[in-house]
Amino acid sequence: MKQILNFTVNGEPVSLAVEPHWMLLEVLRDQLELTGAKEGCGMGECGACTVILNGRAVNSCITPALEAEGAEVITVEGLLQPDGRLSRLQQAFIDYGAVQCGFCTPGMILSAKALLDENPQPTEEEIRAALAGNLCRCTGYTQIIQAVQAASRKED
Ligand code: FES
Ligand code: FES
């Protein structure tokens, strides 16, 4: 039986009926049409579905939607600046060639954002650790690390 889920997504209050077995990724993509978070493995292994839940990067494919009750969720769609420009972190991914096929990119960016929000000037090791759960089959990771380092050098 469906239950009402009340939470905030990218600053907007949302209230909708969800089945207890639905995962947060399904609700974001299928109910709210926020398709930035991707479904890769669906098993918590690849990080393509990463969103920020109460400040923490989580794999939304294995996070029950009802766990988001009362929470604040940020998806990649929420990172645009009020004037529609990309955030510094997003722009750095482009500037440093950290986006190839792009499938991993929203999840990478949200893991990086969660890190930078908590630790604005991380070491390379800390960046690598924060992104360890986000797999990329294209870039070899070097440009991604460089992009996060570049974003950390700028004020947001
Ligand atoms: S789709 Fe969620 S971790 Fe792979
Ligand atoms: S850019 Fe293709 S998987 Fe990362």
What does this structure look like?
This protein is of the alpha+beta class. The chain has 2 domains: 3-79, Beta-grasp domain (Ubiquitin-like (UB roll)), CATH 3.10.20.30; 88-153, [2Fe-2S]-binding domain (DNA polymerase, domain 1), CATH 1.10.150.120. Helix content is 31%, strand content 16%. A 5-stranded mixed β-sheet has the order 2-1-5-3-4, with helices on one face. A hairpin with a 2-residue loop joins β1 (3-9) and β2 (12-18). α2 packs across α5 (142-153). The N and C termini lie far apart (43 Å). One FE2/S2 (inorganic) cluster binds at residues 99-105, 136-139. Residues 99-105, 136-139 line the site of one FE2/S2 (inorganic) cluster (FES).
Notable characteristics:
31% helix, Ubiquitin-like (UB roll), 156 residues, binds FE2/S2 (inorganic) cluster, DNA polymerase, domain 1
Summarize it.
This protein has 156 residues and is an alpha+beta fold. Helices cover 31% and strands 16% of the residues.
CATH architecture of the largest domain: Roll
CATH first level of the largest domain: Alpha Beta
- What does the average pLDDT come to? 97
Structural class label: alpha+beta
Strand content: 15-25%
- Percent of residues in helices comes to 25-40%
